[in-house]
Amino acid sequence: MSTLSRRTFLQTSSAAAIAAALPQILHAATVTSCEFKLAVITDEISPDFDHACSVIANDFGMRHAELRTMWSKNITSMGDDDLARAEATLRKYKLQVTDIASPLFKTDFPGAPISKSSPRTDTHGASADLKEQDELLEKSIALAKRFKTDRIRCFDFWRLDDPTPYRAAVNAKLLEAANRVGKEHLILVLENEFECNTATGREAAQTLAAVQSPWLQLNWDPGNAVARGELDAFPAGWDLLPKDRIGHCHVKCAIAEPDTKAGFEWAPVGKGSPDWVGQFKALKKIKYRHAVSLETHWRGGGSPEASTRISWTGMHEALVKAGAAAPSPVPGTWPQVDITG
Fold first, then answer.
1. N or C: which end of the chain has fewer CB within 10 A?
2. Secondary structure letter of residue 134 according to DSSP
3. What is the pLDDT of residue 128?
4. Residues of the signal sequence (predicted)?
5. Distance between CA atoms of 246 and 333, rounded to whole angstroms?
6. Where are the alpha helices (DSSP H) in 231-341?
7. What is the CA radius of gyration of the chain?
């Protein structure tokens, strides 16, 4: 099997590299049992929600999906007809929903300087008007009830160079939102997002300590923490987190690239940081039973679907090595990647 260079594999600079990896891409691992709820954010596979659900259920053997964008529409912007179509698709593939991956509070904080991370197209038009964010929260609550999940994902506003003057107000808004969802017996899961004010494990520990609500938990994303420069997100960042407030987990990998504008590149799961074998073992140790949801972001496989298939193979291997999942009955094959050159 040919070995692809780091830069070639991560950036997919040639069609030949994609073709070489294609036989491995098409034979993704399937899962028969796991201690966690395994899921994928569906649009990481395809904007075609039916096709994404087919891959998740039939090819990966999963029973859960995370809902963000379907048919190129954010779930919080979809009308009743599209939502009913999504419900029918989930029933068709016997999939349950882990959470509503809303863009709540992925916007500039009112009165604060405009962030260097703003604007971004993936906010789906999120407004910096807090009244409109409150309306988005109400819509997310309704969606959570409709799709029979108890979790809504949120952020804590685009990252400021110095969040200190605004941190108390941001925390107050998080507390207000958490208390609101708590009245509906739901949970707000704050994602540590590399372009938002809580980006790392260390920052997440501080935010959770400041916002003392049982209805606010963490959507732990150590890959995002690595992207922000916390190269020791696992185990050092993880060790600081209150383990009883880990409510969701995103799975992705990044590699530090100081010579690039972003300072990092996304990588296939298992070929960058964090150490997912160690992270899955740590989740097992605390008896975590919520979702671990694949959000690869990496696109070096040539297409979102092919890239997700490669990352799922690496994720499955890590789960098996961690003792959290049974081996695949038809093991997938992992493209040999040299990430040292």
1. C
2. H
3. 62
4. 1-28
5. 31
6. 238-239, 276-285, 304-321
7. 19
Domain for residue 55, yes or no?
yes
CATH of the domain at 128: 3.20.20.150
> Alpha-carbon distance 178 to 190, whole Å?
10
Structure tokens at 73: 């529409």
Q: Read off the pTM.
A: 0.89
CA distance 43 to 50: 11
Give the distance from CA 273 to its chain's centroid: 15
Query: For residues 241 and 162, what is the distance between their CA atoms, to the nearest angstrom?
Result: 23
Instruction: For 204-214, write each residue's pLDDT tens digit.
Output: 999 999 999 99
**Is residue 76 a part of any domain in this protein?**
yes
Bridge-based pairing state of the strands 291-294 and 246-251: parallel
**Mean pLDDT, the chain cut into blocks of 10 residues (341 residues total):** 41 42 52 89 98 97 97 97 98 98 96 85 58 96 98 98 97 98 98 98 98 98 98 98 98 94 95 97 98 97 97 96 84 41 32
Which tokens is 323 given?
Answer: 């003792």
Amino acid (1-letter code) at residue 299: R
Q: Which is nearest to 97 in space by CA: 142, 160, 28, 146? A: 146
Domain encompassing residue 231: 6-321
Q: How many domains does the chain have?
A: 1
Pair 36, 324: CB distance under 8 Å: yes
Q: Which residue has the tokens 């606010």?
A: 216
| C-alpha span between 118 and 158 (Å, rounded) | 7
> Is 192 contained in some domain?
yes
Report the side by side order of strands in the sheet with 187-191. 37-40, 291-294, 246-251, 216-220, 187-191, 151-154, 96-104, 64-67
